[in-house]
Amino acid sequence: MMADFHSFNEAINARAGRKLGPSILVSVLILAVVFLTISFLQILFAIFAWATILLASRELVRAYKAGGIDLPENAIALAVTTLLAAAWYGRVSGLAVAGAIAIPNLLVYILFKSPKDFIRKSAAATFAMFYLAFLGGFILLLAHDKNGLSRIFTLVVLVSCNDTFAYIFGVLLGKHPLAPHISPKKTWEGLIGSIIVTTIGSALVFQFLLDHDWWIGAAIGVVAVVTATCGDLIESAVKRDLAIKDMGSFLPGHGGILDRIDSALFTGPAVWFAFEFIKHFNL
Question: pTM, whole model, 2 decimals?
Answer without folding.
Answer: 0.90
